[in-house]
Amino acid sequence: MAKRIFDIIFSLTAIVSLSWLLVLVYLAASAATRSGGLFVQKRIGRFGKAFTIYKFRTINPENGMINRVSGFLRFSKLDELPQFFNVLFGDMSIVGPRPDVAGYYDTLKGEDRQLLNLRPGITGPASLKYFDEEGILSRQVDSLKYNDEVIFPDKVRINRIYQERQSVVLDIKIILYSVIGKKLWE
User: Is the full-model pTM beyond 0.85?
Assistant: First the structure.
């Protein structure tokens, strides 16, 4: 219950204090992609149920291109700001495993399925380790295979450690590390 209260207070504070930035990033995303600045997608959430995640659009829907502005939004993670609304709605938490598309967390077996008891997060310990996941995958010959065989299993391992140790203090530490770009566990 303390985690949910923390999430509500934190997300409300972020939405109110960053409202000017939300508007600016929305306008930048709209101009950069020549379309509506909001991107919505189904992701797997708590208990394996699908929910709609909100992000700022960074890929031009007509040609699939990412320009400099969009690249900056992705690298800086500013495209993730609308997820504070997902936290407020109860679909996500500030800290937890990142929500994935169907075919990953919803297919976990055995003890690993316990991760589905957590609300997915805007940030988390695996997000800290794989801050540049897009860059890592772009350097692989077969990025899908590398993700499925190396990155995703490692994220599951890291998120299981988080699940065993989770606390409000650890969440605050992960939030601070996310802001300064420091890794938590290898």
Answer: yes
Residue 93 has, within 13 A of its CA and on its CB side, a CA count of 26
Q: In this predicted model, what pLDDT tens digit does every residue of 81-102 receive, in sequence order?
A: 999 999 999 999 999 999 988 8
pLDDT of residue 135: 87
Looking at residue 119, its pLDDT comes to: 96
Q: Which residues are within 8 A (CB) of 93 and not within 5 positions of it... i.e. 6 or more apart?
A: 3, 4, 7, 87, 118, 119, 120, 121, 122
Q: What is the rounded distance in angstroms from the CA atom of residue 98 to the CA atom of residue 41? A: 14
Classify strands 93-95 and 121-123 as parallel, antiparallel or unpaired.
parallel
- 91-105 in b/e burial notation, b at 16+ Cβ within 10 A? bbbbbbbbbeeeebb
Place of tokens 């937890």: 96
What is the distance, to the nearest Å, from the Cα of residue 174 to the centroid of all Cα atoms in its chain?
A: 13
| Average pLDDT for 159-178 | 94
Tally of CB atoms within 10 A around 173? 15
Return the SS3 of 137.
Answer: helix
